[in-house]
Amino acid sequence: MFKNYFKTAWRSLFRNKLTTFINVFGLGLSMSVGLMVMVIVQDALGYDRFHPHPGSTYRVLSDYTKRNGEHWAMASTPLPLADALQKDSSTVAAVTTVYPALGGVATANGKELYIDGVFVHPSFFSIFGFRFNEGNPVSALQQPNTIVMSKATALNFFGKTEVVGKTIKMANGVNYTITGVLETPPGKSHLDYAVYGSYSTVAQMEKDGLLAEKSAAWYAFNAAYTYILLKPGAKKAVLQSQLNAIAGVLNRGNRDGSCALGIQSLNKISPGQAYLGNDNARGTSWGKLYFSMGLGLLILLAACFNYTNLTIARGLTRAKEVGMRKISGARRYHVFLQYVWEAVLLSLLALLFAFVILSVILRYQPFNDSYEMIPASFRFSSRFFIVSLLYAIVAGTIAGIFPAWILSSFTPLRVLKNIGTARILGNVSLQRALIVFQYALSLVFIIFLFAFYKQFSFLSKSDPGFKREGVLIVPLNGLKEGVASQRVASVPGVKSVSAASMKFSARFGGMNDPIWLSDRDHAINLNYYYAGDRFLKDMKLAFIAGTNFPPAAGEDQEHYILLNRKAAVAYGFTDPGKAVGQKLWINDTTQLEVRGVLKDFNYENMGKPIFPLAIRSNPPANRYLYIQTAAADRKEIASKVQGALQVLDPGQPVTFSWLSEDLDAGNSQAATISLLGFLGFIALSVATLGLLGLVVYTVEIKRKEIGVRKVTGASNAQIVHVLSKSFVKLLLVAGLISMPVGWVLARLFMQNFVLRGSFGIGSVLLCFLFLLAAGLFTIVSQTLKAAAASPVKALRSE
Amino acid sequence: MIKITNLEKIYRTEEVETVALNDLSFQVKEGEFVAVMGPSGCGKSTLLNILGLLDDPDAGSFLFNGVEVAKFNERKRADMRKKNIGFVFQSFNLIDELTVFENVELPLMYAGVKKSERKARVDEVLEKVQIMHRRNHFPQQLSGGQQQRVAVARAVVNKPKLILADEPTGNLDSSNGNEVMQMLTDLNEAGTTIVMVTHSEHDARYSHRIIRMLDGHTVTENILV
Ligand SMILES: Nc1ncnc2c1ncn2[C@@H]1O[C@H](COP(=O)(O)OP(=O)(O)OP(=O)(O)O)[C@@H](O)[C@H]1O
Ligand SMILES: [Mg+2]
User: Fold this and answer.
1) Is residue A275, in this structure, part of any structural domain at all?
2) Which atom of ligand 1 is found nearest the CA of B167?
3) How far apart are CA A240 and CA A250, in angstroms?
4) Among A92, A471, A756, B150, whose CB has the most other CB atoms within 10 angstroms?
5) Does A659 fall in a domain?
6) How many Å lie between the alpha carbon of B225 and the closest alpha carbon of chain A?
7) Whose CA is nearest to atom 17 of ligand 1?
8) Is the pLDDT of residue A305 over 60?
9) Which long-range contacts (CB under 8 A, 24 or more apart) does A766-771 make?
10) Alpha-carbon gap, residue A228 to A242, rounded angstroms
């Protein structure tokens, strides 16, 4: 029986090549989106799979409610919690703090690199599954001022992993002895840092004023993260009651509000939850995952509708088959199953096509730039194949269930009498509704895409507030700024050389610390960079009050700080002139004088709101050379600069980039636009193919009518007009529905930007015209063909 | 085997009511070969559809092997049909996607016959209708006569007691037509009851008895043997 289904289905697919093509192409395109979503989901669910005790490892969560009702749910906890939990050995096998206070610029082996680091307890490596390449996991972090680094970090600094015993120095002057080097982790982890320092270092640093005193601060819920490994057989509930007891003690001594502590299983951490503050989860969040799944489903449904549409339309030609099967003794469910199976078979073909598309996408990564839309680390697995097979079967069933229901309801009599064939479909109102839906959907897509494109091309053309043309950026990678600048300055075509600690990029890449005017409690967490006076001059950053750093500022000691206008306002100086001369505390012992206030400039992506920013001077912190070049051959200058620097450190390749290109890459959103474009293309293809199918079908059943009309003297144009009229109406209806929707969506999208491009009714109409043209082409190409055909054949075949 | 009394069938459309069968009564005995004749539109096909349990009458009684089937629901009719009746149509109604063999196999498959037995029985009837050499061809690759022979093979493969044929030679030339008529005669001689609608006096002469209809009613009956 099944074999018979298979054969019939296969042959019928093969015979109706056009319909099969339409279905496989449309369904395959949209299934490729589904596969992409699966890739994203698989990636998002792939965190923290290699840790040794997934079932008994927990992160402690905290919850704080102020008396006035303000409420925070946080993934972070106070620092003293870990030691308090450690004391109870009946349930807890190991506890560690993860205290993210170790990051910054580090020097080792004569190289300066920015690294990301945390302080952890020695038990960290018994709770988590990181393996040691060098060193001993048990003893590595027992002593203060010891550090374990990732393999990549060791290679970056030293070019090798045998570095145990060597020293690394952080920007705050603290030295650490390297006691271990990790292997590259076998999978992804939400905890993934360049260095792990011993927690016992923290106490001394707090004494020395290098770290804020938090290690005994029970109410500093933002400070760190706490992870617990339960003893085998220990009950979660017991741990929870311990935490409740701790929270109870804290609440007794607190009038401002109350806290609660909870636990979260290790494998529930990533993907993150939106409500959780200070979340250190990696990858995407559940919200984004649901959104992509919804989008994939929507597109899939549109393609399934096509199949439904076309199959019901073709039911006409298959009514005879159904009748004969029933006369031969088939029950309704036989016929029903047969047609569902046929849809499933088709959907499996479409899956093959979708896999081809997916492989191309994975290979060429058109949707990835700084943000990885499709994780590049994805590898095909048998589980992925099984899930996608199930997906195809479900999709096929969704597509096939409705036509199967209708086709299997045909009574054999219908076939014999050859009546009501035209009426099988009613007046095809369902098909029409589906076509309208699909076109409306694709028009919304197109409008949104157009708005998106216009907005970002507008942004990439707007003035960021600093000089962007002809600026070559070269990372110092441990070279001394002075020597490097000198060498570069002598290259012909170089006008000036300056340096800063950061590179302008899509997201703020500098530092952020509390800085306060007089009252520590009113400190502002300020973004800041390091840069010299030369940099401000070269980059044409405009002052609205005060002046630039003096030359050679910060070389012996730091005295001055510059603010942007937003920062001046944040400290209460609406008149920027008043800010100049004020002194700001950057830590408990150091004050800096505000020397100037800068006009706000876009130091992050254009269109993002500008946040308060400070610029400080500390030449050793500068990590990039900003080279102003004359408008000459860019390639030539770049390679000459490379050559000039290469001799300073022959072992290390000198890289470079042009500021204007960096900014365009960040602002043009090429990857997102190509993704949206791909989705729009799919939506439009699916809609057009659906329309094509319906037009072909209509023309087919009207062949005789067309023949008669021609014989009685109608011109081709008249016939095309008669046949096309109703379809054009569908397009117009779709346009009327989706133009307002698309326009509103586009507007909402633009609300996210401070700088907005223009997007009006004209743009919306333009999109509609484009869609109309595509639709008209589809309709007219078919109706014209039918009109031009010789009527003799059509009439004779009756 | 068939006994109908006062059968009535009325088609109602928005504008008109057509009385297709009007107070129609007759019998067909087991083993008989009956031809139904009459002008176009007199209700022959309607009658055959009711006899074939594809349609139900509006009034009257229809005894099939002594069982009253006039009020059977679709499911029961389908069951009865499957076990007892084979159909042959003017337009052969073969399934284009299936080969000759598979078309003939279909009724056996839906009846749940085992594969090995299906093959034996299909081959047997294909042999009988002399189409064996074409068993793996598709319907479009056959001539009209060959297609109708396949259709007959399909109608008889399940060994039905009754074969209903609606103008089986209507689309065939005379030599092909005669072949099909000869096959029906052979089947009848082997014991199958046949009711055949035809416009051809020549074909009607193969039968035992001719029922002539006019406006949904029998007018005369000619007994030929
Ligand atoms: N579904 C229907 N709806 C309305 N009227 C119908 C329907 N089917 C048949 N009729 C009418 O019932 C009458 C009998 O039709 P039927 O098909 O039985 O004629 P017939 O004797 O088989 O004719 P022919 O020799 O042309 O095949 C005709 O007048 C026909 O118009
Ligand atoms: Mg008829």
Assistant:
1) no
2) 27
3) 15
4) B150
5) no
6) 32
7) B45
8) yes
9) A766/A450, A767/A443, A767/A446, A767/A447, A767/A450, A767/A742, A768/A443, A768/A735, A768/A739, A770/A446, A771/A439, A771/A442, A771/A443, A771/A446, A771/A684, A771/A731, A771/A734, A771/A735
10) 12
Number of structural domains chain A divides into: 3
Q: Do A58 and A36 share a structural domain? A: no
Instruction: Judge if A422 and A484 occupy the same domain.
Output: no
Ligand 1, residue B42: give the atom nearest the CA. 21
What residue numbers bound the domain in which A546 lies? Answer: 478-653
Indicate if A395 and A445 belong to the same structural domain.
yes
- Comparing C-alpha atoms, which of B225, B169, B162, B222 is closest to residue B197? B169
Pick the last residue of a domain from A220, A236, A268.
A268
Handedness of CA A619, A621, A623, A628 (dihedral sign): negative
The sign of the torsion formed by the CA atoms of B28, B31, B32, B35 equals positive
> Do A625 and A561 sit in the same domain of this protein?
yes
Q: Phi and psi dihedrals of A695, rounded to 5?
A: -65, -45
Any long-range contacts for B187-193 (C-beta under 8 Å, 24+ apart)? B187/B152, B187/B156, B187/B163, B188/B31, B188/B33, B191/B31, B192/B156, B192/B160, B192/B161, B192/B162, B192/B163, B193/B1, B193/B2, B193/B28, B193/B29, B193/B30, B193/B31, B193/B32, B193/B33, B193/B161, B193/B162, B193/B163
* Beta strands at A591-598 and A583-585: parallel, antiparallel or unpaired: antiparallel
- A508-512, B90-94, B201-205, range with greatest mean pLDDT: B201-205
Residue A553 CA, chain-centre distance (Å), reads 40
A704 in contact with chain B, both atoms CB, cutoff 8 A? no
DSSP 8-state class, residue A516: B
Length of chain B counted residue by residue: 225
Give A133-156 as a 3 state SS string.
EEECCCCCCCCCCEEEECHHHHHH
Residue appearing with tokens 């950061």: A502
Same-domain check for residues A615 and A680? no
With a cut of 60, say whether residue A145 has pLDDT above it: yes
Closest-approach residue (CA) in chain B for A9: B97
Which ligand number lies closest to the CA of residue B38?
1
**CA dihedral of B178, B184, B185, B187, whole degrees rounded to 10:** 150
Residues A112 and A209 in one domain: yes
A640 Cβ neighbours under 8 A, 6+ residues apart: A491, A492, A493
Q: Does some domain include residue A510?
A: yes
What's the half-sphere exposure (Cβ side, CA atoms, 13 Å) at B224? 15
Q: State residue A506's pLDDT score.
A: 64
Q: Which two tokens stand for residue A272?
A: 């993150």
Please identify which residue in the block is written with the tokens 């007892």: B84
Asked if A328 reaches chain B (Cβ–Cβ under 8 Å), the answer is yes
The CA distance from A203 to A382, in Å, is: 50
One-letter amino acid identity for A159?
G
Are A360 and A498 contained in the same domain? no
Question: For A743-793, how does the pLDDT look when each residue is reduced to its tens digit (9 = 90+)?
Answer: 998 888 888 777 788 888 889 999 999 989 988 998 888 888 888 776 665
Domain boundary among A626, A653, A680: A653
Residues A221 and A359 in one domain: no
Give the C-alpha separation, A516 to A180, whole Å: 38
- Classify residue A45: in a domain, yes or no: no
Q: Across the strands, what pairs with B194?
A: B33, B163
Q: In the predicted model, is pLDDT for residue A666 greater than 80?
A: no
List phi, psi (to 5°) of A760. Answer: -120, -165
| Domains of chain B (ranges, CATH numbers) | 32-57+74-223 (3.40.50.300)
What proportion of chain A, given as a percentage, has pLDDT over 70?
94
ipTM of the complex: 0.80
Sign of torsion, CA A719 A722 A724 A728?
A: positive
How many contacts does A have with B, using Cβ atoms within 8 A?
66
